[in-house]
Every structure is written in C-alpha cells, then in structure tokens.
Amino acid sequence: MQERALILSHHSAISFWMGADDALGNAPKETAIAPVIAPMREFPVCFELATKLLDNPAQLHLLTNIKGNARLTGRIAYHYQAVAEPAASYRKIESGLYVCAPWLSLIQIAQKFSVVRTAEVAMNLCGIYVMHKGELPQRTHRIATIGLLKNQILAHGTGPGCKRALRALSLISADSRSPMETKNMLVICLPYRYGGFGLMYPKMNHKILPGRAKGLVGQGEFYGDLCWADAKVIIEYNGSAYHTDTAKEERRKRDLETLGWRVFTVYYETLVDVHAFEKLALEIGRAIGHRDRRPDDWMEKHLALRKELGIGRRFRQGNFA
C-alpha cells in the first residue's frame, strides 16, 4: 500500500544528502513502493523534523502533485510534479517523510541552475565528506558515484534538467573532500568556454604509497587533493577546515617531494586572488604538460565563473571587484 508523505526535493533534498551518512544514523532507506505526495498540513510533525534535519533553512522545498499549489515564495517552496516517479526515485527518512534520490535531486537542481552550478552540486554529491554541524567528517558510505548518477539519469529519460545534469557530470571528478576542493578543481579544470584553465582532470584524494622509500618518509601512505599521477604533480588546498598544523603540512610536503612528487599549495588567499591564482594555474599547467590556449574573451568568462562559484574576484590591490 502506498504511503502518503511529505517529499523533500530540489535544494532541500540536496542539503539533506550532503548531511546524511550511515555513521550519523540519518541515512534514509530504499523503498519498494513509491509514496503518494501529501500536503504539509497532513504531517506537521514531519515538517518540523525536516526543518530540524536541515538546520532550520530559510525555505523548505517540497513536492506537490497539484499544479495550482506550486509556489516558490514564503516559508515553503512547493514544486509541481506532474508524473509519479518510480519507487527508486525516493528514499524513506521515516513514516510520513521521504526525500528525492540523489539523481532525481540533481535533475531538479539542473532545471534551476547553470551547468557550472549543477556541476558543483554533482561534484559535492560524489564527494567523500559530510556537511555536519559546521564540520566536514569523511563519509563512511558514498551518496553516489558519477557513473551511477549518469546511469540513473539516462534511465529516467529526457525530461527537463536531464541534459544539463548529464553535461555537468561530464565536467567533474569524484572524491572531493571539501566544498573548497570542489571549487578549486572546477576553476583549474573546467574548459575555457566556462572560464576554467582547461587542465586535464585529476584524480582527487588519490592514495600514494611510498613503496621501497617507506623508510625515508614519515608515514605509510599519502593522499593528494588533486593528483596527476603520470606527471607526479599534486595540488594541495590549504584551507582552515583541515590544514591547521603548518609544521605537519610542511613535513608532508617534504615527504612527497622525497618520493619524487611536485607539490603545489593553493591557499585560500591565492584562490580568491585573480592574478595570483592565474600565475599558479599556468605554472601547474606547464608541470603537467598543458599548453595554454585561452581565447581573447577568456578573462570575462573566468570572472563570471568565479562569481558563480562564490570565490570572489580579488585583485592585487586587495579590493574585490
């Protein structure tokens, strides 16, 4: 028998998935029978639970199957869904409360966002961290992989948002360990037409083993934030969320250099400085064999990309444009 329920969608579904993990005890269960969309007034307790799970958002996004109820203003944003989705489209949080599956949530976001913003969301869904109470612990269970999301979207059909979601998935790498690592990778690797530097895509948080040189370094394994293994080049993002021990980071960098790796460190201050980051990106490109062929209108697109990703456009003078 189908259960009537509130169904979190769009931004609320994405926010839920970014904070869900087995270790936190809040990972939802798959369901064999799709729920029936119900209005909020039927489940006020579930509405309060959803608000609490999402840390009291300014707006809660829910599905509605009544076209006249669709509205995007006020405390609740109702999104009209004309066709009932299969059971695999939803996950059950608890009785009376469901959430759209990651792949469906990505399609919904793609209907509202640009390709770049959709790519950022997709990359974070395929990341290995949880956004939980201001911290970023590592996941015990992945939300999704790029391949799984692609397959599920292709199976879904060619409705609104599908094409853009698939395009976004072709522009990302998996296994980011923080939102800033995601932004860093996108700026470095997105094609010129999106304002990126067009570098070949790296492996993220790639495991590096010292092998026979184990006795020369201080630990048995390393992980490179952005790693080009063939060129033995690593980018490390040094942000306050993780890298607070400067001496430890310096030892780690020396160890990797001992193993033959070239390590570039991107500080937050570098990332938000247009000229400083451009200089560093070009140096990294040369290190991995990339030829800089940016078109004349590239800087305009680059500044637009920075605005979309919310990383500022600070110039040498220290002012934001």
Measured as a percent range, the helix fraction is: 25-40%
Mean pLDDT: 86
Order of SSEs: EHEEHEEEEHHHHHEEEHEHHH
Radius of gyration: 21 Å
How many E-type strands? 11
Total count of domains = 2
Give me the secondary-structure category.
Answer: alpha/beta
Tally of helical runs: 11
The best one-word shape is globular
Strand content: 15-25%
**Multimerization status:** single chain
Biggest pleated-sheet summary: 5 strands, mixed
In a few lines, what is going on in this structure?
This protein has 321 residues and is an alpha/beta fold. It has helices spanning 10-18, 44-53, 102-112, 115-125, 146-156, 162-169, 179-189, 246-258, 268-271, 274-287, 298-309, and strands at residues 4-8, 29-30, 36-37, 60-64, 76-80, 90-94, 97-100, 203-208, 222-228, 233-238, 262-267.
Question: What can you see in these coordinates?
Answer:
The structure is a single chain. The protein is of the alpha/beta class and 321 residues long. It folds into two domains: 4-169, no CATH class; 179-309, 3-Layer(aba) Sandwich (Endonuclease, Chain A), CATH 3.40.960. The chain is 36% helix and 17% strand. The chain is built from eleven helices and eleven strands. It has helices at residues 10-18, 44-53, 102-112, 115-125, 146-156, 162-169, 179-189, 246-258, 268-271, 274-287, 298-309; strands at residues 4-8, 29-30, 36-37, 60-64, 76-80, 90-94, 97-100, 203-208, 222-228, 233-238, 262-267. Strands 2-6-7-1-3 form a five-stranded mixed beta sheet. The protein has a four-stranded mixed beta sheet with strand order 8-9-10-11, sandwiched between helices. Helix 8 links the parallel strand 10 (233-238) and strand 11 (262-267). Helix 3 (102-112) packs antiparallel against helix 4. The protein is globular and about 60 Å long. It starts with a strand and ends in a 12-residue tail after the last helix. The model is unreliable at 316-321 (pLDDT under 50).
